[in-house]
Amino acid sequence: MPTNTVHPITALTQRLEAALREDTDRRLGNLIAGNINTRYARSSSQLSDFCLAIKDKDVQNDEPILSDFRRLVSPTNYESYRPFFEKFNSHPCRSSEVENMLAPGLPIYIPLSSSTSGKKSKQFVKYFRSQPYVGGPPPLHVRTTSLVHTFAYRDPVVVVTDLGEVVKTIPLCNGSTGLVRARNNWSTESDETRMACILPGHVAPWATGFIIHHRSFLLIHALFSLANISLEGINVSFLVIFLDMVHRIEEEWSTLISSIRSGTIPDFEQIGHVRAYLELNMHADPQRADELERIGPPLSSAGWAQRVWPNLKLCTSVCSGTFAAAIPQARSVLGPNVVLHNPWYICTECLIGRNLNPEDTETFVVVTDELIEFLDMTEEQTHGEVLQAWDLQPGKFYQPVSTTQDGLWRYLIDDVIQAAGFDPRNGLPVFRYSRRKNLEIRLPHALITEADLLSVVYAFSGEDTVEVQEFTAVVDDRKFPMTLGFFVSITGNIGSNVKLARQKAFAALAATSEEHQIAFDVDEFGLPTIRVVKPGTFADYRRRRGESTNVGVGQIKLPAVLTDPKAQEWIAERVMMEL
Fold first, then answer.
1. What is this structure's pTM?
2. Pairing outcome for strands 397-404 and 371-376
3. d(CA 231, CA 142)
4. CA-to-CA distance for 270 and 274, rounded, in angstroms?
5. DSSP SS3 for 214
6. Residue 61 has what pLDDT?
């Protein structure tokens, strides 16, 4: 295991700053040269002044082009690009209308973003890159991994010629699905050839990744993982997914042990389309079943995972920011010796950072795959205030701005990061994730804004249900599947239709994003919960908070989202009823 910890420096040396400036300019020049002739670059109003300024310049060698870009191209948001992305939703989708849209050629996949606003997920298009995104190197080498990722995709975009001949089939999928496929060169056309295989280093058949039902997806992964005593690594997109799988194992422990003993596949929901492939790889192992039976289910003892898999040493997942709340419970299951590895800080739009040190789940260094610039969150955000990597000041908060191989833009990422210094090896900025700029709650399938929360509360609040006076929201993971939870204080009496409150809450939430309904349909997300607290609870919260922070109670607000576990526990103790 590597022992050399990298400590950020607080200021750049002249040598490091010069090298950082040179590398940044080189990357920006390559991005401009690569995408300046795309449909977007030629027709976007956001780039019109820039294109006019460089009309007679050599984009490959004329250095003033870089300052032209920084001076004339303003940061923008998704709405600037939506008309170009939506061309891929045309029926038919003609190559003559979408080729070279945002980058040369046609995309290789279309990832869906966890929507922060609007009723639909944001769509992006990802083009071929010779070096696909990869996370920071793991601290340990593992030979056998449970890769708990989906390989499935929704109805693909079929690009055709004007005569109707198919040019390319582009999968519409989760961002992580597209990344894994691109990194391993797993095309949709060759999926069938892998269905019955367990790929080298994996434990579950390829077909497992095509189970859509969330509970069954986790249980089949759990089944093949439990059957393999040699497991050394677990790889999931988010740490909460690992905990979800643990709870599913707890629920179906006897069934899973019986299946390992007999070598049969249980009758879990919605696996008929892959059952034959699973059965080919499931073999009776009474000895392993006896071992597991002696150990017992996951929640029966601390450090359960290392008793089940003696060689387990690495769990790789996103576990920073809001997902860090899952670490204590995950650590209880994994035991003290399994390393938690958070390889990157990534969003659907782009990769922003890789972990600075392999076992540090919260600190990242800006990547050099593309170009990341920054807006100072303490200043008024007007044109001309985009900062470069060498301008950052440790301790200050910034909003990332990305320019990528997938589009010549300056895209505002809706996150806030805190600068922590610079990497002493190359001068790149080191940072920690702070918060989602316009986000209140993040779930694996979707993002929920404060405006979304308000619309949900308004929907279930009323004389016929409960009249909500105040509320705060949490991720409710007391049961699985997890869901959105509300603590509310009420006025008046309980209404005659109070039993409809949770259904009303879900309907309003589903109206904010179709992803909630999709997750609910596959048992990945439950009906929102509503807990009514005793009168005066929120007033006492403000008092306690004011006393603890030495801030007057008039300045303390009840947050729309409560993330402090101790505060959640304190309020939960004051619940007088749950709807």
1. 0.80
2. antiparallel
3. 9
4. 9
5. helix
6. 75
